[in-house]
Amino acid sequence: MNNIQKRLREVFIQSKKTEREGNVHVFLQNIKITKKLVRANLFSTALGMYEIEINGEKAGNTMLAPGYTYYPHRVLYQTTDVTRLLNEGKNSLTAYLAQGWYCGWFTCHKKYKIYGDAPKIAWVLELEYEDGTRQEKVSDDSAREEVSPYSYAGLYNGEEYFADKEIHDTSVLMAEDAEKYTCHNYEGGIPAEIVPAECNVRVQEHMPIREVYKYKDKTILDFGQNFAGIVEIHPEKLTDETVVIRHGEILNEDGSLYTENLRSAKAEIIYHAGNSKKVYRPRFTYMGFRYIEITGTAYYDGLVESYAVYSDMKRTGYFNCDHVLVQKLYENQVWGQKSNYVGIPTDCPQRDEREGYTGDAHVFARTGSYNFDTRLFWKQFMRDMELGQKDNTEGYIGGTVPATEPGGIGKISMLGWGNAVTLIPEMLYQQYGEEGTLIRQYESMKLFVEAEIRKMGRRNLWLGISLGDWLTYGKSVSYLMMHNNPVSNAFVIHDLDVIAETAGMMEKQEEQERYRQQAERSRRAYIRKYIRPNGKAAADDQAAYIMALQFVLKDGPLKKKVFRKFIKNVKKQGMQTGFFTTQHILPLLADAGEAKLAYDLLLQEDCPGWMYQIRQGATTTWERWDALQPDGKVQEEKMGAGNMVSFNHYAFGSVGAFYYQYILGIKPLKPGYQEISIHPYPDRRLGKVSGSYHSAAGEISVAWEYRDDQVYFHIQTPVNTRITLPNGEVHETREGKYEYLSDINERDV
């Protein structure tokens, strides 16, 4: 523990006021600078959600700080250079403290005060002067609590803000005779880990308004894109109005805002303008929306501006093609990631949920790692997974991380979700080549795998109720639960394979052999129970075929038989996949020599299919294949089944990996792309195609286009690469740029 972490632990403060849901506390502290200042660093954190201003200007550019972690064990802190914000003489520090995930209303189960009874905040301001002396200003009882301009702030419901209560002249408000509350030095429990945040949430790109129109006395704004973000209010022309902004993903048939799928989340901003002319920006909430509804004032150009909000990650992948719908799907899955990588990998950004679902997380993880450099994002998440797991006596990992039931989290019936403990580290190792990722998570993986082994017992299979291939088109939830075992046990076998490989990497030979043998016993038991000798899978179910081919079967005659039955099934039934199997169906078909069939599924415009969603106006991928009916109306019966109709869910966006790995053909031959395979699967229907991925080894780019009956390729690679062309030619190359003209195997066209 460094000195800053120790100091932050010692200086937490909280309000003396009675805590009620939605409170936002405002603390002010005087800072006097008497000498020439050369450097000032602010270290700050909270059990709750905070924002700090110095002399009225925000310190740093982090939103929703310090970020959501498993608070019983861990909290993040931010470091901000605030030198330019301080002046010689009198200065003021204003700290806004909300409840956030720590003790505000959170989860679809309407939990309140999950981790604590009231929010707390801590800061250390280090001042360094020109003469070499140093000074420290910390959160303590010299900070006074002021009247808050917020009557409410919450993640789901939004904010209500009274601009006339804004703090404008802090020198007056901090006068000795002002009637104020002093704060309270907090002396209760503090998480053992207070660590630097490495992947903060930021306010990102500006989202332009595409269309403005009236619905009765309401103004509807269409941003043309479903996204997670905030709406600023610019009150230059407002006086005493109360502006209400409601957010929604789609419109009703009559043009009004549709909000039924938000469930209990109000998703609104209530802004009481007074005489303020200061721009209002939400601090303690964000919304998932494409449309907003404005009431309470006459709309004018410039009244509102909107911005996307997501974690700070470097963009690494790009794709372009001539096929408008295929290109739109690529852009949709990128926006799905932006909308749901908000501190944690959420399920959706709009309704009363926005939790870190582990199943959704691992399903999209590989696609996400092509789009963006996600190493730091996952490092934070995996640490919270590990800490939450330690609070479960069985070693299970629950459906959401951070855990929202301290001391009782994790259900083995969430197989397919908790398996993120192996799937994400394995993906990170393959994508970035960092052995430390697997090694760091080994004990966590081991704890979970041992729980699976205990559950299997002598049967060498896990048998029980689980959710199966979640939200498979045409299958009821009860069917998926009762037919989950081929899916669940494939995950278990994969867990055993991964941990055996990791044990070998760590030279733990005894553990490696134990897990390898258990994997083989479970593999044999799986084949006996779920695969017939002729290759037919249990219930001729598409999920059973896909999971067996992806995780269970080794190369050999049986796998070939299963492939043939799988292809026959797909040709007969079309695509029948859910959250877990969608990412695998197109790659498996391409690998089996059925690239045309894979492209047929990608391009089909009937439901279920990605192009169906786009034809219905989707700008992100949906939670359900059939969220909208062909007539554009919401599937109301699905609303009745848990009201689960999100239009911004990234699970089915996992098809993005197919773009990089098969359309462009970019895969690692060795972890971290130290050696590369480039094996594109061209299809004439896409037109010209180009794309790139900035790997851990450097920039990889691929472009191809049809020239009569041949395909022209332009490839750039940073390291030794195996290039496989459609005519079967294989070229072993080094770093450089290469051009090829290849004939086409018509089966793959």
UniProtKB/TrEMBL annotation:
Q: What is this protein called?
A: alpha-L-rhamnosidase
Top-level taxon in the UniProt lineage: Bacteria
Q: Name one GO biological process term.
A: carbohydrate metabolic process
Query: Which residue ranges does the record assign to the Alpha-L-rhamnosidase concanavalin-like domain?
Result: 216-297
Q: Any keyword Hydrolase?
A: yes
Instruction: Give all residue intervals belonging to the Alpha-L-rhamnosidase C-terminal domain.
Output: 665-732
Domain named Bacterial alpha-L-rhamnosidase N-terminal is located at 35-180
Q: Which UniProt keywords apply?
A: Hydrolase
The Enzyme Commission number assigned here is 3.2.1.40
Can you name one GO molecular function term for this protein?
A: alpha-L-rhamnosidase activity
Q: Which reaction does it catalyse?
A: Hydrolysis of terminal non-reducing alpha-L-rhamnose residues in alpha-L-rhamnosides
Is Hydrolase there in the keyword field?
yes
InterPro entries (alphabetical): 6-hairpin_glycosidase_sf, 6hp_glycosidase-like_sf, Alpha_rhamnosid, Bac_rhamnosid6H, Bac_rhamnosid_C, Bac_rhamnosid_N, Rhamnosid_concanavalin
Organism listed in the record: Faecalicatena orotica
Task: Enumerate the spans annotated as Alpha-L-rhamnosidase six-hairpin glycosidase domain.
Answer: 314-663
